[in-house]
Fold this sequence. Notes:
- By secondary structure, this protein is mainly β.
- It has a domain at 1-60.
- The chain is built from 1 helix and 5 strands, in the order E-E-E-H-E-E.
- The strands form 2 sheets. It has a 3-stranded antiparallel β-sheet with strand order 3-5-4. A two-stranded antiparallel ribbon has the order 1-2.
- The model is unreliable at 6-24 (pLDDT under 50).
- Belongs to the Wnt family.
- GO terms for molecular function: cytokine activity; frizzled binding.
- It is found in: Secreted, Extracellular space, Extracellular matrix.
- Keywords: Developmental protein, Disulfide bond, Extracellular matrix, Lipoprotein, Secreted, Wnt signaling pathway.
Amino acid sequence: MILSKYITTHSNNHAAGRFVLGNSVNRGQRRKRSRRFNLIPVDSNHKPPSLRDLVYYENSPNYCERDNSIGFKGTRGRECNATSIGVDGCDLMCCDRGYRSVSYMAQERCNCIFHWCCKVTCDICTKTKIRYMCL
């Protein structure tokens, strides 16, 4: 769950310490108080949420496990990105259960050449790729 990855620096964190809320410090200057909150990740390896990320303040259902009442299959077996520190990364998506790597052969177009005018020819290459999946 994303919420458990953030802490709060705001004094009245009534969400059981899920994430830190805080405003910029006013160093003796008269400024209008900002209403934006600074969210700080609990784990410094995770990126802080951007303005485009959706962050919930209230508890959400446990999406790590299967929930047949809402038709959610959980994250077991879901493909993840082992090198990402974002929400698609295996660390967050797999809910600390770990992940496995599976190698597979994929055919791709390669050595493509553009011929004047209006034709592209490519070879078909076989590459070994690795897919990461949540346990």
